[in-house]
Amino acid sequence: MDINFTLDTEVFNYRVGVVIKRNNKILVQKDGESDYYTFVGGRVKLGESSVDASIREFMEETGINAQYVKTLGIVENFFKSNYNHKNYHEILIINELEIDKDINDIKNIEGKDEVYIWLSLDELKNNKFLPECVLDIINSDKLVHLINKDNVK
Fold first, then answer.
1. What is the pTM of this model?
2. Are the CB atoms for 81 and 91 separated by under 8 Å?
3. 40: exposed, middle or buried (C-beta count within 10 Å: 0-12, 13-18, 19+)?
4. Which of 130, 71, 123, 131 is nearest to 95 (CA)?
5. All domains of the chain in start order, with CATH
6. pLDDT tens digits along 72-112
């Protein structure tokens, strides 16, 4: 059971985002309905750690085994969804994982219209990436806690 619930026009999410680095690039995804990039990830299940959720979500979406490296940050993320127009209160844990260095071409195996691409941090900063605030913690050597408020009324 995903840790997610809705009350009227408010939604609470507990999510993970996965950072995978290779050759000064970061793996990101973009689905066919959005105009922005984001990290691979998804919702944490009740009774599941954020580390286990990161590994599971990456495996479910790509079919690729990954290993935990470290936790980069915790984001209290507040935003209004462009899809359902509800206000979200999200706890987002960003975990760095690593995969086999020989894997370059990554595809979604769940049948979703998603593209995975390797982009440099500069390329990400020059494109739309959400939540934008996490770009500043990708290369941090310390655990970072952020509070992000995007399009919240």
1. 0.92
2. no
3. buried
4. 71
5. 4-150 (3.90.79.10)
6. 999 999 999 888 889 999 999 999 999 987 777 888 888 78
